[in-house]
Every structure is written in structure tokens, then in C-alpha cells.
Amino acid sequence: MDVDLSQASGDISFAPPSHDVNAPDLYIPMMAFITYTLLLGYAYGQYNRFTPELLGITASQTLVLLFLEVMFIKGGFWLFEENSPGLLDLLAYCGYKYVSLIVDIIVGLILGRNSYYLTASILSLFSGLFMVRTLAATRRAINSEKSDSRAPRTYFLLFIGLLQILISGFLAYNVITWPETSIDDNINSVSSATGVSSSTIKQSTKVSPTTDGDSP
Fold first, then answer.
1. The predicted structure's pLDDT at residue 148
2. Mind giving me the DSSP string for 131-142?
3. pLDDT tens digits, residue range 149-204?
4. What's the rounded Cα separation, in Å, for the pair 131 and 126?
5. Sign (positive/negative) of CA torsion 165, 90, 104, 62?
């Protein structure tokens, strides 16, 4: 990881991705954020729960959480009087979790609720581990002269990892109430019972969420 230490204090800049393959890059997090928002709207639409306001609510909620997360990390580095990664670098690090959230939603659409929750739990843990290891390596690189492994700094990095797990879990477990089975499983069951091909059912019907009480 190539680091530019020309600044006397404050943020430290990394070499651009064209010169360092390990440099943080906002392209993947930005595309993942957009894809996550659109894919979540698609998932709601599959169960007739989509509303036009959903995309705006999802985008604003995730952006607020991202902003608070980045500010917390910046504040922690400032509190320990250490140089911190640049704002855009931290946005990239924190934004990589949207890639795992995309995988969670795709698994939920294909395999149903139980597989979704299992995948979300595993990938949330991986997101936390990624943040701890990445920030630990970055901290050693940009604070080589005064870096140490005293307990408060170590606990701070571990808490950032835990925070990443909690945010990923919140975004994963509160986006949608998944059915126990996937859409295709429900359609195939209806197809087997009625003798109508699954393709015909997909074209002529939509899967609706289960509601209590009698229909009007």
C-alpha cells in the first residue's frame, strides 16, 4: 500500500488506483450503493410492496448511516491524535458492505428467507473483519512513527468492526420481510397442483403478501 506522507497533519492520501492496486476506489462502493437501492426496490416489487417513495427512503437511510459511520471513525482517529485516512478513502472502505448486501438480496430472492438470513449473518461478520484488518493496516502505514498497539486503540478498531457488523445487520434484517420460500418455489407448487405451466403463471399472476382476514 503506497502512502503519500507529504502532509504534516490531518488526512493522509494514498497513491491513486492507477499506481497502486490496493488503493481504495469509490467506483465499486458507488455502483454497489446504486445497485443495492434498485435491487431492494425490485425485491419489494416481487411481493407487491413497492412504492415510489421506497427508493428515496432507502437511499437517504443508507446515506445517513454511511455519513455517521465515517464521522465516527474520523472522530476516533482525531481523539487518539493520529493521522486518519482521507474522507473519500473512508467512504470507500465503509461502502464496500453494499456489495455483500446485494448478495444477500439475490440469495433471498432465489432461495428464500432462511438462506437470506444465513447469508446476511455470514457476510456481516466478513464486513466487520474486513474493516478491522483494513483500518489496522492503514493505521500502521500512516502512523508509522507513533503507532503502537495500546489497548484503547485496539479496542477502538474492534469497536469499528462491531459497528460495521451492526450496520450491515440492520440494513440486511430490516429491508424486507422475506417469505419462507422463494417466489419460484411458490410458483412451482401452484404449477404442480393445477397442471398449469410455471411460465404461464408468471405471466398472468403476481405473488402477493399474506394478509390476515378475509378478502373483500
1. 54
2. HHHHHHHHHHHH
3. 566 777 888 898 898 888 888 887 765 555 554 555 545 554 555 555 656 655 55
4. 9
5. positive
pLDDT at 96 over 80: yes
pLDDT band at 9 (very low <50, low <70, confident <90, very high): very low
| Rg, C-alpha atoms of the chain | 22
**What would the DSSP string read from start to end of 141-178?**
HH-TTT----HHHHHHHHHHHHHHHHHHHHHHHSS---
CA 39 to chain centre: 13
Domain residue limits, the chain: 3-176, 181-207
Which one-letter DSSP state was computed for residue 213?
Answer: S
- Cβ atoms of 182 and 105 within 8 Å: the answer is no
Give the three-class secondary structure for 99.
helix
Alpha carbon separation from 74 to 35, 48, 65, 156, 182 (Å, rounded): 27, 41, 14, 12, 41
Q: Is 181 exposed, middle or buried (0-12, 13-18, 19+ CB in 10 A)?
A: middle
Report the Cα–Cα distance between both ends of the chain, in Å, rounded.
64
Single-letter amino acid code for the residue at 77:
F
Contact 66, 95 (CB under 8 A): yes
Percent of the chain, pLDDT > 70? 65
